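Weekend entry, working from home. Most of the wet-lab plans are on hold until the incubator is repaired, so I used the time to fold the two sequences that have been sitting in the queue since the last round of cloning. Logging both here for the record. First:
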Amino acid sequence: MINRVEKLSLLSEMIAFAQKDDSIKSIEHKFLLSIAKQLEVSEEDFNYLFEHPVTYVNLKSHSERIVQFHRLVLLMNLSPEISPKQIIRIYNFGLRMGLSQESINRVLDLMESFPNKIVPPDFLIDIFKVQYN
């Protein structure tokens, strides 16, 4: 289980990713708030992160890093148009989390073949399992 600092770091990272043009769309805000609730972070703490980002903390658990990468992919795909800059940003987030370059590329390539560009969790896990073993 991840601790409070890690939870706030995850949310802060996602907020930074969503603030690509200094604003967050309503759908992105709702998605982020739902993640905060899943992580048992209060709405007050969640809102605080918009003005006071938390320093990035790398998750120790490989599976938690995969889950966080999946959240970022889902967040990115809330926008109808995905720019090359967003792809580069998510790729760099994945690398910074210590995920395999091959796995990240595979997920980003495969997402085009799924409805709404959403890679199902079981596919995502299988992609990272192959690289992890």
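Second, folded right after the first finished:
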Amino acid sequence: MNNLPNISEILINTFNTLINQFVIFVPRVIGCFIIIAIGYLVAKGVTIVIRKVLSSIGFDRIGDKLNEIGLIKQLKTEIKLSDIVAKVVYYFILLIFLTAATETLGVDAITSMVLSLVNFIPKLIAAAVMLQIGIMISDAIKGAVVATCKSFNIPSSKLIGNIAFVFFLIITFISALGQIGIETTLLESSFILVIGGVILSFSLGYGIASKDVLSNIISSFYSRKNYREGQIIKIDDVKGVITKIDNTTVTIVNDTTTTILPLQFFQTRQVEIFN
């Protein structure tokens, strides 16, 4: 019977340990909430200042350019960069104070998790900036492609421009994911295979469908130097004055008719030029 443990002594020691730990932990919890409260006030104050400063220097004009892009309009959203930057700074400051608060508690697991979030934010900002610049460059490339296709009277210029836009946007998106730290090797390989197949199919189909247009464009490089507006010419049974020459056609006007001929005709037909 003397070997039996003293239950009352064990309970008293356990209770004393709990009280001691509670007495130690309560000040840490109070300190943690005080640090979080201070961090919240600091983050709010800095956010208000940053938003006002960025708005006053016209930083939102970049966002206005993004809002004019067709893809952003389709999403029915409005980008205001001063608000976005202010929000990012707000959460960044809050996480820094939250890190200090978790260190006060002495819980290493929570501290490590918060630190990982703090380290992740700069990468996220860099990826967002990269994506924003990529969207603007993609839209500029789209506009250039559409303008070039229209200047050569190539049909489906908007379709070609949208394809170029999506192509460069996907490249930017993959690069942004890599900046964040996400492994993109498999995604890049899949994208290359898919885009290669799409480009090959589109090139074959579009080339067959547009062979006459392309033929006219190629002919224009050889024919335009031989003909000019105001010349009197005869091609087949059509005789008249050249009133207009564009990238694919020649307009011939006489007393009775106006005839528009493809430029490729001038490579395969006999043409008489009258002085």
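Plan for Monday: verify the second prediction. The CA atoms of residues 129 and 176 lie 9 Å apart.
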